[in-house]
Specification:
By secondary structure, this protein is α+β, with helices and mostly antiparallel strands. It contains 17 helices and 22 strands. The protein has helices at 19-36, 140-144, 157-168, 199-210, 215-224, 238-244, 269-276, 288-298, 330-339, 347-361, 367-442, 446-495, 516-526, 535-543, 549-570, 579-584, 597-603, and strands at 2-12, 51-55, 62-69, 74-83, 99-101, 107-109, 112-121, 126-135, 170-173, 176-177, 184-185, 232-236, 282-286, 308-312, 327-329, 531-533, 590-592, 608-611, 614-617, 620-625, 632-640, 645-652. α13 runs antiparallel to α14 (535-543). It is elongated, with a radius of gyration of 44 Å.
């Protein structure tokens, strides 16, 4: 792959236009130019999606577009690729293979042309890079640069595309405008129409004319400036050049259309040369008296005293070797023209070829484009990491939901088994009652009646035991149902960022914690106005192995919110309503306002919590998860109406309760 020529510059957006709006307008100008190259068929090219995909307007032609955004930068790329082939009649729309047959019936690989446009912007400026490349096999690449036909649209990137961009926006490289220093010094060679679409260029022209009252001194200052990034081509006596060497410039060839046919009567030779070298060099024309004044400033060896051209490279000084800044007089131009045997035969075409080759060889992506690439790459890495973390959380939530589903199925099976046993016991009890009634009516012996009575008591006891087991199983099944709903709610919450319509992954802003103790400490600081964390709660949190500390933070936040509304309602504020409804509207966890009497009689002492020499029994609690110590946690709390605070007495593994299965 070889870079034929490259142009890179910055664009300052006009007043009232943001950099992103300016970038979009330049992008539309570039894609519109590409469409126009296909003639009437350009109207049928599909819309450019700017999502990394491509369209094929003709056989083996491809146009790829992409656009990426971050908070500060925006990066747009337009890639156009097509094979070399002569354009057919009616417009340039290539078709056919990339291999053609030669006169000796052999085949050769056709070069493939590539046009790349990179546009990047930050909050201040837009940077544009236009690059033309050629791809071929073996030694064919060395001849590609001289075989680019005038019919190839990429041969006129400067004449058509870049000229339109310069006439619409203020394009510069560093502090140097792509427009000439001024285009003419010493004589009025520029018609009024040159600046019709560019008031900024007129301002530069007027400033240069008025610089110290000496145009030549201003030009010398420009040539000696260390900030000058573009070469400067000085043309002396352009009329003598055209008359002295006919045919040395394409401008003199019959039928040549430099830009637009409507502009042919008004275009001048200096403007033509500047358009041909736009983005590669700045052009300054002058007459012989002005050239003599220039000689007074920089010496005869580094100036021009006769009609001709001289190229001043960046870094020019008054002591620079004259050979480093080549000069072309009438004799040199005639000699080069007579020796030329290739397609590059005109003087400005030769200069263009040399400058374009150097521009491609020296091309490097600009700082704004590089910064945009780096920022977007970092953003993609962060999004991939967030997606990985979210996928892990989704997998954990799905596993918890499946575990809860299995537990629910198991307890339902146990409940059905106990229900069948209870039904059998009820039937046996009914039979015993019938037998007892029959014996009573038949006046059976006392010992037989005692045996029946004992059997009846045993049946009653067994029935009561089965009812207790059924009730415990039913309560456990209800708990499993609550855990399942909580797991499903957590899973839906985790899936929500992935289901956004714009397909952009939202980064989770909720805090994360390493363990329950860190969660409790963070909640104590976050909700210090309403929550009081007891010593027993901190000790239980240190021993907890609960796998989802973020759920603990949500539960504490819900307790704080309900507590604020609870105490506000006592001050004639908005009514809270049932406490269980207040929690249900905020979190998916199970809330209970009290423990069963059996649980309190058996394990009431475990519900007495201590803090700073104070002890209190608490029954209000929230249950998170279930199954084991890793997946289940309980928070006990009470509303302290005197202090207007919610006392958090316990936060750890689930305490023992009546009917608990071992």
């Amino acid at each position: 792959m070889g870079v034929i020529h490259a142009t890179q510059f910055e664009v300052d957006p006009p007043a009232g236009q943001t950099t992103r709006q300016c970038l979009a307008a330049i992008r539309d100008k570039i894609t519109g130019w590409i469409r126009s190259c296909y003639g009437r068929k350009g109207e049928t090219i599909p819309r450019f999606a700017f999502d990394g995909t491509g369209v094929a307007p003709a056989f083996e032609h491809e146009i790829r577009t992409d656009q990426q955004d971050s908070q500060i930068y925006q990066l747009v790329s337009v890639e156009w690729e097509f094979p070399e082939r002569s354009p057919p009649k009616g417009g340039w729309h290539h078709g056919g293979p990339r291999v053609e047959q030669t006169r000796d019936n052999t085949h050769r690989r056709l070069p493939v042309w590539q046009f790349s446009s990179l546009l990047a912007c930050d909050e201040k400026v837009v940077q544009v890079a236009l690059v033309v490349r050629a791809v071929a096999e073996g030694s064919v690449l060395s001849a590609i640069t001289s075989r680019m036909r005038l019919s190839n649209p990429l041969s006129a990137v400067r004449v058509y595309l870049l000229d339109d961009l310069v006439n619409q926006w203020l394009c510069r490289i560093g502090q140097q405008s792509l427009l000439p220093f001024p285009l003419a010094v010493g004589e009025s060679l520029i018609p009024e129409e040159v600046f019709r679409n560019h008031p900024e260029a007129r301002e530069l022209f007027v400033q240069a004319k008025a610089a110290g009252g000496d145009e030549v001194a201003a030009l010398v200052e420009h040539l000696l400036s260390p900030e000058r990034p573009l070469p400067t081509l000085v043309i002396v006596a352009p009329r003598a050049l055209l008359e002295g060497v006919p045919g040395a410039f394409e401008y003199t060839q019959p039928g040549y259309v430099p830009t637009d046919p409507a502009n042919v009567p008004r275009i001048t030779f200096p403007e033509y040369i500047q358009v041909r070298l736009l983005g590669l060099a700045q052009v300054v024309v002058m007459d012989l008296p002005t050239a003599q004044r220039l000689t007074e400033h920089i010496g005869p060896e580094r100036s021009l005293s006769a009609p001709g051209l001289r190229l001043y490279w960046p870094g020019f000084t008054r002591t620079a070797p004259p050979a480093h800044h080549p000069r072309y007089n009438l004799k040199d131009i005639r000699t080069n023209l007579s020796k030329s045997r290739g397609p590059i035969d005109s003087t400005e075409a030769s200069l263009q070829h040399e400058l374009a080759y150097l521009s491609g060889d020296c091309f490097r992506e600009g700082p704004i484009i590089r910064a945009a690439r780096t920022a977007l790459a970092s953003l993609r890495v962060a999004q991939n990491q967030a997606a990985t973390r979210l996928a892990e959380r989704v997998a954990a939530a799905e596993a918890a939901a499946k575990h809860a589903q299995r537990m629910r199925d198991t307890f339902r099976h146990e409940q059905d088994t106990l229900q069948r046993q209870l039904d059998d016991a009820n039937r046996q009890l009914a039979d015993l009652r019938c037998q007892l009634a029959a014996l009573s009516s038949a006046s059976a012996p006392d010992h037989a009646q005692d045996e029946l009575t004992a059997e009846l008591e045993r049946a009653w006891n067994e029935n009561a035991h089965l009812r207790a087991e059924a009730e415990a199983t039913r309560r456990r099944l209800n708990e499993i149902e609550v855990e399942l709903r909580a797991a499903q709610a957590n899973l839906a919450e985790l899936w929500q960022p992935l289901a956004k319509p714009d397909g952009v992954l939202a980064l989770v802003s909720e805090p994360t914690f390493a363990n329950v103790r860190d969660t409790l400490t963070a909640a104590a600081a976050e909700f210090a106005d309403i929550l009081v964390i007891w010593d027993d709660a901190l000790r239980a949190a240190e021993q907890s192995r609960f796998a989802h500390p973020t759920q603990v933070f949500r539960a504490l936040r819900a307790i704080a919110e309900v507590g604020r509304v609870y105490f506000a309602a006592q001050e004639e504020g908005p009514q809270l309503g049932p406490v269980e409804h207040a929690f249900a509207s905020r979190i998916p966890f199970k809330y209970s306002g009290f423990e069963s009497q059996t649980t309190m009689s058996m394990y009431g002492a475990e519900r007495v919590f201590r803090h700073a020499g104070r002890s209190q029994q608490m029954q209000r609690h929230l249950t998170l998860g279930g199954g084991d110590a890793v997946n289940c946690l309980v928070i006990y709390f009470e509303f302290d109406e005197t202090a207007q605070r919610v006392q958090i007495g316990y936060c750890g593994r689930h305490l023992r309760y009546a009917g608990q299965r071992t």
